[in-house]
């Protein structure tokens, strides 16, 4: 059986709880019951109201970060257990904005992946190169390394259920999408490194998304590529256009 696509909206730091509920309400009837798994990854304060808004649909709610510790003196942070307690199923980890602005490293991403899995959250692990790294020709080496470190000490059983998002940094929020061939090449390389770390079965089951200026016009061609199992969508997930992406 083929892999089920997964399309996740990364709302980033957008939307008050009132606005978030309005957005969820405006989209939910048009995108629930789709052939893909659909996730709204919303700001922490919006999680509970959005969960309430999508109740009774098959839309899942995800978070955008967790702390790697279970609990304790980490002012301002949110734990995996807190998210699970309210019904969150997914968490985006290692987004390039968190790596860039909040000093996240491959090592902290790995700790967060382990904590997420231990608590029953499905991690959406982001990897991807900068424009300079692409121009240097080190894209595949870099995402292989990011993937290997992120999945250190993760069992094959848990890796199978995880999601990896290939997000070239130069394509995020820029309107500059990777070509279908560029996105496919790197998603295939990620699946290959998963095969090397684990085995064929894990590589065939893990879902690899593409993210970076996905929109209503380019989603279907990107998602038709053999190793692209859906998308992580930023800007367009806040617009009515998200329906076109989900129902690509
Ligand atoms: C993202 O935030 O993960 C993203 C891919 O953003 P955008 O779709 O706006 O490029």
Estimate what percentage of residues fall within beta strands.
5-15%
Strand order of the largest sheet: 1-2-3-4-5-6-7-8
H/E element order = EHEHEHEHHEHHHEHHEHEH
* Secondary-structure class: alpha/beta
Task: Give unreliable regions as ranges.
Answer: none
Task: Count the DSSP helices.
Answer: 12
Q: Largest beta sheet, briefly?
A: 8 strands, parallel, barrel
Mean pLDDT: 98
Supply Rg: 17 Å
Relative helix content = 40-55%
Large-scale geometry: globular
Instruction: Give the distinct bound molecules.
Output: phosphoenolpyruvate
- The termini sit apart by 20 Å
Descriptive notes:
- By secondary structure, this protein is of the alpha/beta class.
- It has helices at 17-31, 47-54, 80-86, 96-101, 106-118, 131-136, 139-150, 156-161, 180-197, 200-205, 219-223, 242-246, and strands at 6-10, 37-41, 60-63, 90-93, 122-127, 163-166, 207-211, 230-233.
- The chain has an 8-stranded parallel beta barrel, surrounded by 4 helices.
- Helix 1 (17-31) runs parallel beside helix 2 and helix 7 (139-150) packs across helix 9 (180-197).
- The radius of gyration is 17 Å and the shape is globular.
- It starts with 5 loop residues before the first strand and ends with a helix.
- The mean pLDDT is 98.
- The protein binds phosphoenolpyruvate.
- Phosphoenolpyruvate binds at residues 10, 12, 167, 172-173, 211-214, 232-236.
């Amino acid at each position: 059986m083929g892999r089920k696509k997964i399309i996740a909206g990364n709302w980033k730091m957008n939307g008050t709880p009132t606005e978030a509920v309005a957005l969820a309400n405006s989209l939910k009837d048009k995108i629930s019951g789709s052939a893909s798994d659909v996730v709204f990854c919303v700001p922490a304060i919006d999680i509970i109201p959005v969960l309430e808004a999508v109740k009774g649909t098959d839309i899942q709610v995800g978070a955008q970060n967790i702390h790697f510790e279970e609990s304790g003196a980490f002012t301002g942070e949110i734990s995996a257990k807190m998210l699970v307690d309210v019904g969150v199923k997914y968490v985006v980890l290692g987004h390039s904005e968190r790596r860039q602005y909040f000093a996240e490293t491959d090592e902290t991403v790995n700790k967060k992946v382990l904590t997420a899995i231990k608590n029953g959250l499905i991690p959406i692990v982001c990897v991807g190169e900068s424009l300079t790294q692409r121009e240097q020709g080190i894209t595949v080496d870099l995402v292989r390394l990011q993937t290997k470190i992120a999945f250190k000490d993760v069992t094959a059983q848990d890796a199978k259920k995880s999601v990896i998002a290939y997000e070239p940094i130069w394509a995020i929020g820029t309107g500059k999408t990777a070509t279908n061939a560029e996105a496919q090449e790197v998603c295939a390389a990620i699946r290959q490194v998963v095969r090397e770390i684990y085995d064929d079965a894990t590589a065939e089951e893990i879902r690899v998304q593409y993210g970076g200026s996905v929109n209503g016009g380019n989603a279907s061609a990107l998602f038709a590529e053999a190793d692209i199992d859906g998308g992580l969508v930023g800007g367009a997930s806040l617009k009515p256009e998200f329906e076109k992406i989900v129902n690509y």
